[in-house]
């Protein structure tokens, strides 16, 4: 039996290139009007990891009263983008190239937490994964997971 | 040089199992409040293919004023889900299991068209692809493509 | 700062439905001739988690002498399928519906380890993730990660 | 009803930057030992589109005697990579960043055809899609489709 360490894969890499990474993330997030529309807020920003919270809201639901997969994907995508952003150099912007999301459980509950983290930082491309949990009085449930490829570009 | 037919792969399969498929799609779509929130409307419903239109709107944008990838993904996901729905039996509902989207060009323009079509219908799982185009006075541009796995379930 | 537990998500679910799950996995694996061709062997089988090892071999390489992404994907796909298999009922078989793989580093080294684990078990669909590491005298490097949707079917 | 043109999306872009693209593809393909191992051959090379054929072979099968998903993915990945290669500048190499494949039908038959085509060429990233068909005396069946992100790099 081989012991595999499933913990933080990034221990060696977590020194941000931009000491002002948190301010950069907050400033960019404040310009993402889609996040404000969804009621998403920043819970935490750490090197290689960003957590965003957002409430259940019926105007973003699908036909059965669960949050629409696209609303869940929206916040997961931003969590991954900003996780990548924490490790990017100053004067850069990040952009999703593609993502894939698996919907694991119905998106119901009082609210949700999208936890994006960097799997592999890169000069051009950064790969991130976001887990989305439903939150509330009871137990936290994993409702979705997203794997994203993000491009880091010099800000124009 | 082998000639490959890239056209409608579904010619043999387009006879819907539910003659009332269009009414079923319209009724379900009217309950998707997220689509109303995004301003999405049905452009066309045909066996195995559903087109949805939606306008550019700044409240769904990311930090640079382009529509957020999650907003684009939302309508593409619904277009694929309803494309699957047209070929599903009566008394069933469809649910996205997972999807993957590639963002191909910045989501700018007056509006957008998400064209979902069935690649392979199935009793349990249906695979669909949606192309999203920006529309406007000029040329139509492909801005995203999404591959989705959709589960067909007896309505509860 | 919200503390998120990134550890085993499956603690509650790890009681296999089939006590003979290990024998079932070994028997099926022995019939996967593609695994024998690639030289893959079973390192460990636990409820919800299967590790497979395979050597570097030039006949499975791409143009630059790294293992071909498809060879890496082959073993990752089997690791995920057998991880799903450990939690499936007796008399069932598993089949990949789809997978997505991110290639994170060049596939070089003496050998590789593909670690598949169940993220969410289900009656019909199980979602798994496989991390692939290069192994050797030095440090273990994460070279790829795969997210898979697997269908569990009654054996025919 | 909006008429959507599902045909060649690349009509405007098909002028290769490297007139010697075909020779470049053939030379690189000849170095992909994994393709030789699988018995894959080039059927056609055109700007933005490459077709590869490969036979059914039991040594690349899964537990039920169908070709392993990883073997199918291997050739689809190469078809997409070389499709991207036809539109890349001279002195560059292509590398898969990630791909997602949906398995649509059992991989059985005498042989298979993997048809890769560029959906969107780019300076850094090119997005391709490959359809894989089973071939034989009867009807051609779509057994898989793959969406790939490919990076174009200066050859080292």
Strand content of chain A: 35-45%
- Describe the largest sheet of chain A: 6 strands, antiparallel
Classification by helices and strands of chain A: alpha+beta
Poorly predicted ranges of chain A (pLDDT <50, ≥5 residues)? Answer: 1-11
Oligomer type: homotetramer
In DSSP terms (H or I, runs of 4 or more residues), the helix count of chain A works out at: 3
Any idea what the radius of gyration of chain A is? 16 Å
Which bin fits the share of residues in helices of chain A? 10-25%
- Order of helix and strand elements from N to C terminus of chain A: HHEEHEEEE
Instruction: Tell me the distance between the termini of chain A.
Output: 51 Å
State the total count of DSSP E strands of chain A. 6
In the sheet with the most strands of chain A, the strands line up as 1-2-4-5-6-3
Question: If interface size is counted as residues with C-beta under 8 Å from the partner's C-beta, which chains form the largest one?
Answer: A-B, 35 and 36 residues
What does the overall shape of chain A look like? elongated
Chain-averaged pLDDT of chain A = 91
């Amino acid at each position: 039996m081989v012991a595999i360490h499933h913990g933080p894969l990034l221990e060696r890499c977590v020194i941000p290139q931009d000491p002002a990474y948190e301010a950069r993330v907050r400033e960019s997030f404040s310009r993402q009007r889609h996040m404000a529309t969804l009621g998403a807020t920043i819970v935490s920003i750490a090197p290689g990891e960003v957590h965003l919270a957002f409430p259940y809201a019926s105007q973003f639901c699908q036909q059965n009263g669960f949050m629409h997969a696209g609303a869940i994907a929206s916040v997961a995508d931003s969590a991954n983008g900003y996780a990548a952003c924490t490790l990017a150099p100053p004067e850069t912007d990040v952009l999703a190239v593609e993502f894939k999301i698996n919907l694991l459980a119905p998106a119901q509950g009082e609210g949700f937490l999208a936890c994006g983290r960097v799997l592999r930082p890169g000069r051009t491309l950064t790969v991130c994964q976001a887990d989305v949990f439903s939150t509330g009085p009871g137990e936290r449930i994993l409702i979705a997971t997203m794997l994203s490829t993000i491009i880091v570009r010099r800000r124009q």
